[in-house]
User: Which sequence fits this backbone?
């Protein structure tokens, strides 16, 4: 193994850098040293850390760390060439780079073709149409959105909406639709595309459903969220999450809230 400090000093002098100048350049890498620390490397009193060594190699353009600090790199196919031979290799490399035959090929993004069912029978924004489970064609395109399961066409639009007759809309199949989201609804053997607007807070966990009427009951009595939280001895953030349907209250919290509102638990939280 070669002398680490002397090797660094030799490259530093080739770049006409003083110890102070090298220490200053290291600050650009978040490494702060005094010039006497750089001098200690040369004398062998100290050795640079791995992070310091990598930064030094980048500053001094040391590319073959193995050869420079250990021994000749057996993996380097040019290790037996002198300077003249290395210059010839570089000249030939420049010629190869100018030829498009030897350049790294440009990476072209791969557009994955996706396939989804598109139902023949259209859904309606106004009057509904029945969506037959077997009445569809396979649609193939790279432009199909990722998180979708099937497509439908809109027809007989008699309402003001962002959809127009013949529009193809892509849908994601889900067990539950969030309030305010657009979805497909089946009613009386017809299918409609509508926005869900449900004033009641519903939480679904597995097969269990809890309808939360906390906001309805609280506002009817003129209480703020903070007043209910303090009165029921519950963290206000927890109460907000319960009211917004983000969480199902445990039995203790449900009883505390109902007691403060002077109501039965089942009047505030309906379990289905």
Assistant:
């Amino acid at each position: 193994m070669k002398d680490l400090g002397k090797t660094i000093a030799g490259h530093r002098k080739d770049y006409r850098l003083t110890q102070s100048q090298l220490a200053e350049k290291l600050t650009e890498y978040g490494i702060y040293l005094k010039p006497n620390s750089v001098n200690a490397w040369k004398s062998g009193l100290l050795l640079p850390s791995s992070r310091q060594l990598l930064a030094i190699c980048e500053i001094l353009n040391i590319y073959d760390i193995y050869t420079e600090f250990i021994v000749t790199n057996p993996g380097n196919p040019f290790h037996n060439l002198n300077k003249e031979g290395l210059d010839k290799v570089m000249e030939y490399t420049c010629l190869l780079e100018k030829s498009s035959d030897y350049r790294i090929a440009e990476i072209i993004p791969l557009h994955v073709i996706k396939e989804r069912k598109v139902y023949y029978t259209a859904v309606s924004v106004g009057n509904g149409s029945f969506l037959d489970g077997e009445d569809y064609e396979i649609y193939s395109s790279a432009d199909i959105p990722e998180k979708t399961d099937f497509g439908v066409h809109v027809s007989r639009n008699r309402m003001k909406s962002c959809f127009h007759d013949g529009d193809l809309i892509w849908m994601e199949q889900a067990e539950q639709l969030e309030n305010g989201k657009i979805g497909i609804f089946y009613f009386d053997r017809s299918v409609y595309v509508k926005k869900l607007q449900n004033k009641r807070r519903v939480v679904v966990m597995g097969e269990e459903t809890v309808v939360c009427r906390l906001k309805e009951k609280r506002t009817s009595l003129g209480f703020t969220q903070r007043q209910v939280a303090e009165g029921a001895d519950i963290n206000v953030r927890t109460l907000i999450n319960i009211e917004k349907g983000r969480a199902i209250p445990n039995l203790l919290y449900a009883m505390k809230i109902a007691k403060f509102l002077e109501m039965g638990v089942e009047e505030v939280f309906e379990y289905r």
About this structure: Confidence is low (pLDDT under 50) at residues 126-130. The chain has three domains: 4-102, 114-195, 201-271. The first strand starts at residue 114 and ends at 119.
